[in-house]
Amino acid sequence: MNKKKRPSALVVLCITALAFGLLSGCGAGSKSLGVIKLDSGRISGLHQDGIWTYLGIPYAKPPVGNLRWKPPEPPQHWSGTRQCIKFGPSCPQPPSDEQVGQTSEDCLYLNVWTPAKSSSEKLPVMVWIHGGAFAEGSGSEPTYNGRNLSKQGVVVVTINYRLGPFGFLAYPALSSESPHGVSGNYGLLDQTQALKWVKKNIAAFGGNPVNVTIFGESAGAESVDIHMVIPQSKGFFNRAISESGPQWHFGFLPPLSDLREAEKTGGQLATALGCSSAADPLAAMRAKSSEELITAWGWTEQKVCPPTGLQFFPVVDGWLLPDQPTTLFKEGKQHDIPLIIGSNKDDGSVFSELAGLNKVTAAEYESLIQSNAGDSAPEVLKMFPAETDAQVPTALSNLMTQMDFASFPRFVAGSVAKTKTKAFLYQFTRVPPTEMGAQLGAYHGSELPYVFGNLDTTQGYDQADLELSKIIMGYWTRFARTGDPNGGGQTEWPYYGPGDQNLALGDQITTNSGLYRAQIDLAERIYAGWNQ
């Protein structure tokens, strides 16, 4: 993949530096590169406007050859000083609109932005886990550039991890070769390995290894939620921020499978690859190229909602992930840490469009609700009516927004509220003044440019958006610093409790209560019935 002719190293350096505003000109105007000693060797980066940037740092060995579908191993040592001035490759993935750059199975790299002037500053650390349905995306996407967020006084880290069948393939032969008898969660193990790397090395960047916040959106937020209940992740982070990461699924997003069910999916991939009848199917699968794996996988965004085809997601394997996250939260088995969690006012609009719901008739909609909601179907149809075909997309968008994306955050916030620590619930309500905002409202992922401070005014963002971005970055970074987002002269954000409080982040910053209470109460009754 990405076999275009490579430019010269000098051109690459110039383009990389200019693209991220790191130099005022190539070969002039830059400060000398800072050299940092890691446990695996020395690295250098780029400095401009008070921020040091280190890109493409390996945090594990390349998971290629016999290391494909194995837990990540610490990176190999290198001699000399490694220049970390451009992003490492992203995990191979099907074509999409995401700007992920070069792809390769050698993809376990991370990036660091730090405002520290010395290693003794002990700044709070924020580790970003990107979204993309566990199938696409990268820590190098322009939206996630950490420079502006790091200017708020935090060290920002973005990571890559293995995706799709590279990161989440369960297969009987893989389970057999595992000392734990499991397979399928390699992408989650990559994330944990990155957190271990941060624990060991972030002090050299002026970060505090005992003050680490993990944050993510969509599949990245689901990852955050999962790490809160993974025993092996305990101690590697101290706070968490989860943005629009559902775990309950009203028939449109696939639930997490147990190991045996996931192994069946792995067997289907082996068959699609033509390896199931080989003398050693696993060796034959490891010999296939990444392009052959992606072709056999056949993933597209349209197959995620509703789920069709081969799906590769985190697995309830009984070892890394002992049970469904909902069950573990309900039983109070999550790590006892502060949490920010929330959703967007129109999270469901993107999924409604992806699923082609403009083609679903009102009769099909009613049948779909009845098959998912059972005895509660009349209540669901009353809350989300669609008497005509034209009303179906809006009804389903609202249903997914309220009964999936808003429902799970309230459940998790309530679970955390029963512990000694605090949870803070939010809803992002600002409709971006962009083409996508006009079409999809406060859509899934629309908060991301505000969180990272990367608003492109040429796309329509205005001064009100820039001010909202400052407010959100302030809440997020104060939370990373102290476990409490309040301060800075901003609207007081009450912690979640019996009053069902939440903060609206939009044209106005307001405190509210009872967000979609009737809809979420109904959702909880339906999902509880599913889990009996």
How would you briefly describe this protein structure?
The chain is about 35% helix and about 15% strand. The strands form 3 sheets. The protein has an 11-stranded mixed sheet with strand order 3-4-6-8-7-9-10-13-14-15-16, with helices on both faces.
What does this structure look like?
- This protein is an alpha/beta fold and 532 residues long.
- The chain folds into two domains: 9-203 and 245-251 and 254-316, Rossmann fold (3-Layer(aba) Sandwich); 325-347 and 406-530, no CATH class.
- It is built from 19 helices and 16 strands.
- The strands form three sheets. An eleven-stranded mixed β-sheet has the order 3-4-6-8-7-9-10-13-14-15-16, sandwiched between helices.
- Helix 11 (348-354) crosses helix 14 (392-405) and helix 12 packs across helix 13 (377-383).
- It is globular and about 70 Å long.
Characteristic key phrases:
Rossmann fold, 15% strand, alpha/beta, three-stranded mixed beta sheet, 532 residues, disordered N terminus, eleven-stranded mixed beta sheet, 2 domains, globular, 16 strands
**Main sheet: strands, sense, barrel:** 11 strands, mixed
Terminal-residue CA separation: 46 Å
Number of DSSP-assigned strands:
16
Residue share in β-strands = 15-25%
In CATH, the architecture of the largest domain is 3-Layer(aba) Sandwich
Widest sheet: strand order?
A: 3-4-6-8-7-9-10-13-14-15-16
Which class of secondary structure composition applies to the elements?
alpha/beta
Number of folding domains? 2
Question: What is the arithmetic mean of pLDDT?
Answer: 89
CATH superfamily descriptor of the largest domain: Alpha/Beta hydrolase fold, catalytic domain
Give the C-alpha Rg.
23 Å
